[in-house]
Design brief:
three-stranded mixed β-sheet; two-stranded antiparallel ribbon; 5 strands; 3% strand
Length: 623
């Protein structure tokens, strides 16, 4: 692992990007058989709260994999035996459903006649539906296959960790899903062709790495793949399965992997190899048709603001300069030479911080989390009941929320296959778990709030902004006071997020080359060439996502300072945190409005001046 910033497998891989690319509702029954208009007709005339819940459930039913991940199969009356239909034709029908829901919302319900809580739901749901309409416009711009968080890679984790495996029926459903992998990948390959017909192909290097990744993990036999080995391990724990049934199920799973899964991956490699010669260079989306407009739309989607790429770029430059100055002060206090580069100095930080043996990484992070859970009571009077566990894997650094039915805890995945430097671990544990992603998302999932707000899938700036705020809060609470190297790790991670504002907009808006972005990143953050390249390639396919971290954190800090300034001695940080969290995820403008309402509710009204003879009655005003 690089001594500076290790490859972070996208700190919030849990975000359910593109969840609307989805499918049949129950075994053998497609929602297409029901008809979009029939669904919309059934939604007409419902009371507001029922409409919001019922309409979003209809959207969820288009994605059986998401339903499984959220733990809602029983609630929605479905089986865990289908994969998402990701063919563009089906995706288009889903957008048609969402547009119909948006029309009903806007044309049926008078916002002014709704309660305060309902108005919040109205505004938030409106934002999501409007965003889906924009995504429909750019449906073909999302690369069907990349080397990172992409369908062919995510499917491994889905089968390994998210498909339930507690009953004989779960086992049978698992096998049925294995048999559908080739159908899903046929859609994936078809989508590649349809996008290409519109002039949209992922950069050649992404496709080459995707193909290489498949070749490295998909051998010729089922028993070498986790699709089979995970199944074999888990069914050993199901008491109701007899030895004879177990042997039969293993044979069925082996056949399904050999006949469906492996051919699907092999066909995808062939399709990738065929497209690579026609693919463009490794550049930003500006090179795509309408690429500039697409990028602005993605920035707005992820930041939930109207900030321009130029404004975000300048903010990044300013933040990089500020954070680097703070880091330099720590280097000076340690006696590090001022003539050395940041890369050289962070190499020294890594060594001085110590190395954690691979077999101790999980336990160390579990300790960070336990201590955080004890210490957060200083600034929070709320906490989730849902547990978070740490899972060691080959390449980690991300969080997956627990299921809404409580059957699966939240999980922090961390790389533990090799020894690693200690200095960066504490900060990412706080970011991904407590008081970061797990804390915020689990609280939201347990609230009595509309279903569409749950799962952590919307409002990147809120979710990632909160997790970055959690890192800062840990520093304010003194959790780094006896650990200067971890504090430097925190600052380097913050510097990384600031640099992301610069390189994301640089790549996609200012037309920087990949090497130009790598060079800037190495110089600004102190990363190695390999680490910088990994990060830059992440930004090239996850368009605009990484502009959200700093944007969200800075807004939360701005709102907190505003509340402190307005309330003075009345300010209570526990109350502020409740105000931020207890409506669950929100677009930043709506969060700002709610904090203004919180301030107004806490501010004593100014009493009217005394009535004067013959004068007018004074009007009380809230400052």
């Amino acid at each position: 692992m690089a001594r500076s910033i290790p490859h972070l497998a996208a700190a919030a891989a849990f975000l359910l990007i593109g969840f609307f690319l989805s499918v049949p509702t129950a075994s053998g029954t497609s929602m297409a058989d029901v008809g979009i208009q029939d669904i919309l007709d059934d939604l007409q005339g419902l009371p507001f709260d029922e409409f919001v819940d019922a309409s979003y459930k209809q959207v969820l039913l288009r994605s059986p994999q998401l339903v499984t991940s959220l733990g809602l199969s029983q609630t929605l009356g479905t089986r865990d035996d289908q994969l998402d239909d990701i063919c563009y034709s089906y995706v288009g029908e889903t957008f048609e459903l969402e547009a119909g829901i948006q029309a009903i919302l806007l044309n049926t319900y008078d916002r002014s006649r709704l309660s305060y809580e309902q108005q919040i739901s109205y505004d938030s749901y409106s934002w999501i539906l409007a965003g889906w309409a924009v995504e429909h416009e750019y449906m073909y711009h999302f690369y069907p296959v990349t080397h990172g968080f992409s369908r062919q890679n995510d499917l491994f984790r889905f089968f390994e960790d998210e498909h339930p495996m507690e009953t004989l029926q779960n086992a049978r459903d698992y096998i049925r899903r294995l048999r559908l992998v080739d159908d899903q990948f046929a859609c994936l390959i078809g989508n590649m062709g349809e996008s290409e017909a519109r002039g949209i192909i992922a950069p050649a290097q992404m496709l080459q790495r995707a193909a290489g990744g498949i070749r490295a993990i998909v051998p010729g036999t089922a028993t070498d793949l986790s699709f089979y080995t995970t199944f074999a391990t888990k069914i050993e724990e199901i008491a109701e399965i007899s030895p004879a049934d177990r042997l039969a199920l293993l044979e069925q799973a082996r056949n399904a992997v050999n006949s469906s899964v492996i051919p699907a991956y092999q066909s995808l490699v062939v399709a990738l190899d065929e497209q690579i010669p026609r693919a463009p260079a490794m550049n930003g989306v500006w090179q795509l048709p309408d690429g500039d407009d697409f990028y602005r739309a993605r920035v707005r989607h992820h930041t939930t603001t109207d900030l321009t790429p130029d404004e975000i770029h300048q903010t990044g430059l300013d933040e990089v300069a500020r954070i680097r100055a703070e880091i330099r002060g720590h280097f000076d206090s340690l006696g590090y030479p001022s003539s050395a580069t940041f890369a050289e100095l962070f190499d020294r930080v890594a060594v001085d911080s110590g190395i954690v043996p691979a077999d101790q990484i999980v336990a160390l992070n579990e300790g960070f989390i336990r201590q955080a859970q004890e210490d957060i009571t200083e600034v929070f009077d709320i906490a989730p009941e849902t547990e978070v566990i740490v899972i060691g894997i080959r390449a980690g650094g991300f969080y997956v929320p627990g299921s809404l039915d409580g059957s699966r805890p939240g999980a922090y995945y961390i790389g533990n296959q090799t020894d690693s430097y200690r200095y960066w671990m504490r900060t990412i544990a706080y970011h991904e778990t407590v008081p970061g992603h797990h804390f915020q998302i689990a609280i939201g999932n347990e609230l009595d709030v509309p279903l569409f707000t749950k799962g952590g899938g919307f409002y990147t700036a809120f979710v990632e902004g909160w997790a970055l705020y959690a890192e800062y809060l840990a520093m304010e609470l003194g959790w780094y006071d006896d650990d200067v190297y971890s504090e430097l790790g925190r600052l380097q991670w913050e510097l990384l997020r600031a640099a992301r504002l610069v390189v994301d907009t640089g790549l996609h808006s200012k037309r920087w080359s990949r090497q130009q972005a790598i060079d800037y990143y190495i110089d600004a953050v102190g990363a190695t060439e390999a680490s910088a390249a990994q990060q830059i390639d992440l930004y090239l396919y996850w368009v605009g996502y990484f502009t959200a971290y700093k944007t969200g954190e800075m807004k939360i800090l701005e709102l907190r300072q505003h509340a402190q300034d307005e309330l003075g001695d009345l300010f209570d940080i526990k109350e502020f945190h409740r105000a931020v969290l207890l409506h669950n995820c929100l677009p930043l403008p709506l969060l700002e409005r709610l904090i203004e309402d919180y301030i107004a509710a806490k501010t004593p009204a100014v009493p009217p001046p005394p009535r004067r003879a013959g004068g007018r009655v004074g009007v009380a005003r809230v400052p």
